[in-house]
Amino acid sequence: MTDSKREESTARPQGNRPKTFSPRVVVQLLVSLVAVPFLPLLVSWHWGWWEAWVFGLTCILTFIVSRVLAARRNPDLIAERARFQQHKDTKPWDRVLSLLLVLGGGAVPLVVGLDERFGWTPALGVPAKVLSLVAILAGHVVSSYALVVNRFFSGEVRIQTDRGHHVISSGPYGWVRHPGYAGGLLAYLATPLFLDSVWAYLPTVVLMALLVVRTSLEDKTLQAELPGYREYASRVRHRLVPGIW
Questions:
Q1: How far apart are alpha carbons 83 and 80 in whole angstroms?
Q2: CA distance 38 to 40
Q3: Which of 37, 74, 87, 244 is the least crowded, having the fewest Cβ atoms under 10 Å away?
């Protein structure tokens, strides 16, 4: 999930749009919409685990709704994201980081499922579950809002000169410079708590560290290569957490 920022414009690049759907994209969708959301259930084989059902359905519904809204507003964004790991101008360091983040996103529900299967962590109280579910929903909403507003929300860190790349400062980009990542961090942090897995915080901490590193590198890239981004960064001071960083 690349969270690049740009000044909103109604202009759209002309020309042939890249093919959105392919066997590769279908596999990616199956992984995103089936395998990862329901991994805790598939690993634990505890089909009466209501928290895992809520987690899976929340992931699926927010994914579908955000993509539908983004496609209606910026149809070319869906094609851009469908070409994950296929752009020649992706930053070399992000080819590694983006794959590690994908693996980390799958490692968390995997450990959650193993924890449930073998009973490593006792069940937590209802208040903790309610708070963590609210945090998960809030994280998904913020990330989805960023995706819908930002037509340059690519899956890779690159300067999208082929798409008229420019700064977006509206919506959640007026709060922090990388709201998509900020929402993801919030959801990642709350997921182990909601699914009763202290052990899942091990891959979660690694995943969050990778996301912070990617945010830092991406922000430096945008300040160096995207016209207008330095001025935007001087107005919106924080990258992920308002008042902190």
A1: 6
A2: 6
A3: 244
- Cβ 1 vs Cβ 184: under 8 Å: yes
- Cα–Cα nearest to 228, from 4, 3, 2: 4
Look up the pTM and report it: 0.86
Report yes or no: 121 and 197 within 8 Å, Cβ to Cβ. yes
List, in order, residues 6 or more apart from 173 with CB less than 8 Å away. Answer: 5, 146, 149, 150, 179, 236
Domain that includes residue 187, residue range:
23-235
Residue pLDDT, tens place only, 199-215: 999 999 999 999 999 99
Q: Which residues contact 87 (CB under 8 A, 6 or more apart)?
A: 154, 156, 158
Inside any domain, residue 240 = no
- Residue 231: CATH number of its domain: 1.20.120.1630
Answer yes or no: is 245 within a domain. Answer: no
Question: For the chain, how many structural domains are there in total?
Answer: 1
User: Which tens digits make up the pLDDT trace of 148-198?
Assistant: 999 999 889 999 988 889 999 999 999 999 999 999 999 999 999 999 999
Task: Please spell the DSSP secondary structure of 180-241, one letter per residue.
Answer: HHHHHHHHHHHHHHHTT-STTHHHHHHHHHHHHHHHHHHHHHHHHHSTTHHHHHHHS--SSS
**In this structure, what DSSP letter does residue 121 have?**
S
Distance CA 188, CA 176 (A): 18
What's the length of the chain? 245
